[in-house]
């Protein structure tokens, strides 16, 4: 397994007749799955016995199995047990196994006449054959074909098999699992190819769902959310032309020739929202647009991949939010994250800051394996080049150290709070930065260390990106129950996502752990409420891809003492001001970019209204989520508005 070209793990398969014994172990950024599997196959290559054990990326224990006996298939995954008739036999889609099962499924689909088979727990998988390529390696040239499996998730899954139907590679734009010895020839070629396949898919979706009307577009009879007043206006018409808001007029003003008129039916237009902690990928770009997230601050990415995505969005090839880039810089260690760039010396780190400063990055983000003693020098250089600095607290340092070094913003609430509970020398490059949160219930929030940190942040104007939703999932998610983050929308999602959202992230099997994690989340909310009360500026971001998670992030901001209107102002104009973009974005005013969305009700009274978006306008292009979501297997949450007239 390679991530950004670095070896981060492996998958080993041993055959014993019809039995496969599999070890899968990947560690990137100090974490990753460790899985052991035993699979028994029938003569057709379908699993009839399957045992999966180990730990998921964040440590949740895995005890998953399939047994086909007496005409019935029974299974157990993290959501509980299930069963279905085994005549005809379906193919079990594992929840926490290795990618090798994709090769087994692809082979079974290839053997099927119409390349479509029923799968357990539910649904149908289909196969589409794509390109065949040849790769050189120590055992000679291998000819391999990439296939796309549909029906498993919101996006197709790409798997590459050799001529004998054996797994050769499983690639994404950012990483690849590839046959040993063929890394050099296959890594870049296959990652580039699957990114091309993804782009082609989103180009097709864009062609089907993006509406670029000739002439002006008038959204008639809508109230506007005014983030300055934190209230709704009276009814207006909003006219859009060539990507800009050409005018905001009185409701039901005269329509000029050539306009497309959309009936807002007394609903509310809200300015496009800002996801402030993204790691942006092509697969989630359109889903963010459909969720009203028209701007993203990317907090770390492979620079060439992100630039390519930004180019495709700017050209209108695919849909996606406006992206503000952060320069991700990580120190070199056995626990390094392979996102962005890694450095080994202070000189390399300074060179990287300067490299980003010359390429229009707005911010530097420092990460876990960075040496804390380098921070002040790097901060000074970034500031001299006009960039802000944010990030994790480097291992063996505390938040106070980074505040004193000149950080403009602290990232993740756990990164701050760990400084109050960790012992000297404990290593946060590992999962300890998450599991040690079980110490938070015993923390006295009125203690001197807490007071000192919060006072420094308030006095120095240090902002904070808490990513509350990811902590909610980490600390409150439990096997068999829906994560509270997604309880409102889970029924509209594909079965695969429903299954995922009914799975916990962490291991709570030890006595007292469940209660400790629940108490930890309560302490997090209390701490953030204290921050808000002291005037520490909190910015909404998820680190979970935005979209539905972003809606939940805003709901959790209400728990900190903010009204729905205050939350919406924070998510829109206040973020535009924070990033220096308020001249063009953040509110619905004449001359600004046409980035906004329509809901039927009043989100200043009920923030849940933003989960029922009827229309999104992004850079003047109109999208109806009711048309977008079916392409991802998602049931729409609201109907599109009526188009009254169209030239």
TrEMBL record:
Keywords: Hydrolase
Lineage of the organism: Bacteria, Pseudomonadati, Pseudomonadota, Alphaproteobacteria, Sphingomonadales
Identification of the protein by name: Amidohydrolase
SUPFAM superfamilies listed in its UniProt record: Composite domain of metallo-dependent hydrolases, Metallo-dependent hydrolases
Presence of keyword Plastid: no
Pfam families recorded: Amidohydro_1 (PF01979)
Domain Amidohydrolase-related positions: 281-622
GO molecular function, one term: hydrolase activity, acting on carbon-nitrogen (but not peptide) bonds
Organism per entry: Pacificimonas flava
């Amino acid at each position: 397994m390679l991530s950004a070209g670095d070896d981060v793990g492996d998958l080993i398969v041993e055959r014993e007749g019809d039995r496969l014994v599999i070890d899968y172990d990947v560690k990137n950024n100090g974490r990753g799955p460790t899985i052991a599997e035993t699979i028994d196959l029938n003569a057709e290559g379908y699993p009839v016995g399957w045992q999966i054990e180990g730990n998921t990326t964040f440590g949740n224990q895995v005890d998953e199995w399939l047994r086909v006996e007496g005409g019935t298939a029974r299974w157990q995954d993290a959501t509980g047990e299930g069963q279905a008739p085994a005549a005809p036999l379906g193919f079990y889609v594992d929840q926490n196994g290795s990618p090798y099962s994709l090769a087994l499924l692809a082979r079974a689909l290839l053997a099927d006449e119409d390349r479509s088979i029923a799968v357990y727990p539910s649904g149908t998988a289909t196969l589409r054959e794509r390109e065949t390529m040849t790769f050189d390696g120590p055992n000679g040239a291998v000819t391999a074909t990439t296939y796309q499996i549909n029906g498993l998730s919101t996006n197709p899954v790409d798997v590459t098999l050799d001529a004998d139907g054996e797994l050769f590679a499983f690639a994404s734009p950012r990483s690849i699992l590839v046959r040993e010895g063929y890394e050099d020839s296959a890594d870049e070629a296959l990652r580039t190819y699957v990114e091309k396949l993804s782009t082609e898919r989103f180009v097709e979706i864009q062609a089907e769902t993006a509406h670029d009307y000739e002439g002006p577009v008038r959204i008639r009879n809508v109230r506007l959310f005014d983030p300055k007043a934190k209230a709704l206006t009276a009814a207006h018409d909003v006219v859009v032309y060539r990507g800009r808001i050409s005018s905001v007029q009185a409701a039901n003003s005269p329509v000029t020739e050539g306009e497309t008129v959309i009936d807002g039916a007394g609903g509310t237009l809200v300015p496009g929202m800002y996801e402030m902690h993204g790691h942006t990928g092509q697969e989630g770009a359109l889903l963010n647009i459909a969720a009203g997230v028209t701007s993203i601050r990317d907090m770390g990415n492979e620079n060439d991949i992100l630039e390519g995505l930004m180019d495709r969005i700017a050209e209108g090839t695919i849909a996606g939010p406006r992206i503000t880039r952060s320069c991700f810089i990580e120190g070199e260690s056995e626990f390094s994250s392979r996102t962005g760039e890694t450095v080994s010396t202070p000189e390399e780190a300074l060179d990287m800051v300067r490299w980003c400063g010359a390429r229009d990055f707005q911010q530097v983000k420092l990460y876990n394996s960075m040496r804390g003693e380098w921070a002040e020098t790097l901060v000074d250089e970034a500031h001299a080049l006009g960039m802000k600095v944010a990030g994790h607290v480097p291992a063996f340092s505390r938040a106070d150290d980074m505040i004193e070094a000149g950080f403009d913003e602290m990232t993740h609430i756990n990164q701050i709070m760990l400084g109050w509970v960790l012992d000297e020398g404990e290593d946060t490059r590992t999962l300890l930065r998450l599991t040690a949160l079980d110490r938070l219930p015993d923390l006295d929030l009125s203690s001197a260390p807490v007071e000192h940190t919060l006072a420094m942040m308030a006095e120095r104007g240090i902002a904070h990106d808490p990513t509350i939703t990811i902590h909610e999932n980490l600390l409150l998610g439990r096997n068999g129950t829906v994560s509270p983050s997604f309880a409102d929308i889970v029924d509209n999602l594909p079965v695969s996502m429903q299954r995922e959202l009914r799975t916990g992230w962490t291991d709570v099997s030890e006595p007292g752990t469940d209660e400790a994690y629940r108490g930890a989340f309560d302490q997090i909310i209390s701490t953030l409420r204290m921050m808000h009360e002291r005037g520490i500026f909190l910015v909404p971001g998820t680190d979970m891809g935005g979209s539905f998670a972003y809606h939940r992030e805003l709901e959790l901001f209400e728990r900190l003492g903010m009204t729905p209107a205050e939350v919406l102002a924070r998510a829109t104009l206040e973020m535009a001001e924070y990033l220096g973009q308020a001249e063009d974005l953040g509110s619905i005013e004449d001359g600004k970019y046409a980035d906004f969305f329509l809901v039927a009700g009043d989100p200043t009274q009920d923030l849940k209204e933003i989960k029922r978006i009827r229309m999104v306008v992004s850079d003047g292009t109109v999208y109806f989520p009711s048309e977008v979501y079916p392409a991802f297997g998602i049931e729409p949450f609201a109907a599109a508005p009526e188009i009254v007239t169209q030239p």
